[in-house]
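Colleagues,

For the teaching module next term, I've prepared a clean inverse folding example: a structure given as tokens, and then the sequence designed for it. I'd like students to try predicting residues themselves before seeing the answer, so please don't circulate the second half yet.
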């Protein structure tokens, strides 16, 4: 960090650069990290790989295909479930307590590293059995492949056939959302970035980035039994956020299909970061 000059000296920086004005290490760290985004849950692994302390995996053994009974037994022992299907498939039926992180997203591995807590072992649920191999290769880029313990053989079809519990996340179209808002029936949580929010958002929405949901549920000011629609740009990040909210006791959740892209395309009213109505 410099004062912005193309050419400088240490003496100049010591005199004018605010980063050089601290006598204590803690104050300097606080200054340098102020306003920075939250750290990924997997940041320790990422740092270890970047520093060469943990080598990248060069070859991968196939993940075990688990029966519903074996899958459930590992969940009861503390393994976390990662449902890698698309949001609509997740919404139609998923294993209670699962994270929904979509394999189809080009940011799959980044979101995997950001969202998964601690060092829990991980189990995958895909649309097809081959999805687990793709997810495993992506996880290897961020050092998470060692935590993958297997996948649900036969997917949700096998889970249902075994008579296991299934949860839903209802999907709601933007036109339905507008009607519900007009009737005062729903609250809205927008989980996009601040820049996206400032470009246009629903007037009554509450804003919190999806990466920060798990640590800030209490600060939302929303009751778990309150009907709540969750939106992002397209419906993918909002499904991630909703899957986390479900784990924190929220029960009347709706994922907004198509998100704010669909809201804008429908010509519905939006406010910018200054509270002014956006032009359609």
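(Answer key — instructors only)
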């Amino acid at each position: 960090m410099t004062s912005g000059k193309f050419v400088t000296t240490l003496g100049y920086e010591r005199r004018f650069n605010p980063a050089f004005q601290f006598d204590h290490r803690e104050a300097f760290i606080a200054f340098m990290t102020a306003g920075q985004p939250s750290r990924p849950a997997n940041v320790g692994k990422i740092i270890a790989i970047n520093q060469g302390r943990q080598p990248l995996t060069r070859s991968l053994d196939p993940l075990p295909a688990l029966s519903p009974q074996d899958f459930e037994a590992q969940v009861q022992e503390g393994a976390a479930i990662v449902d890698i299907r698309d949001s609509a498939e997740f919404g139609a039926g998923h294993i209670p307590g699962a994270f929904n992180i979509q394999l189809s997203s080009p940011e799959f591995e980044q979101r995997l590293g950001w969202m998964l807590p601690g060092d829990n072992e991980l189990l995958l649920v895909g649309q097809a059995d081959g999805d687990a191999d793709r997810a495993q290769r992506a996880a290897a880029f961020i050092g998470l492949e060692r935590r993958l313990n297997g996948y649900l053989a036969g997917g949700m079809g096998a889970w249902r056939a075994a008579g296991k519990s299934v949860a839903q996340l209802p999907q709601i179209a933007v036109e339905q959302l507008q009607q519900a808002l007009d009737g005062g029936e729903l609250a809205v949580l927008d989980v996009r970035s601040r820049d996206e929010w400032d470009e246009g958002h629903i007037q009554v929405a509450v804003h919190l980035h999806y990466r920060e949901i798990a640590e800030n549920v209490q600060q939302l000011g929303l009751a778990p039994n309150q009907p709540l629609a969750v939106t992002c740009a397209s419906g993918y990040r909002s499904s991630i956020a909703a899957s986390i909210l479900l784990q924190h006791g929220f029960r009347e959740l709706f994922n907004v299909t198509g998100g704010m892209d669909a809201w804008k395309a429908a010509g519905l009213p939006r406010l910018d970061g200054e509270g002014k109505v956006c032009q359609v």
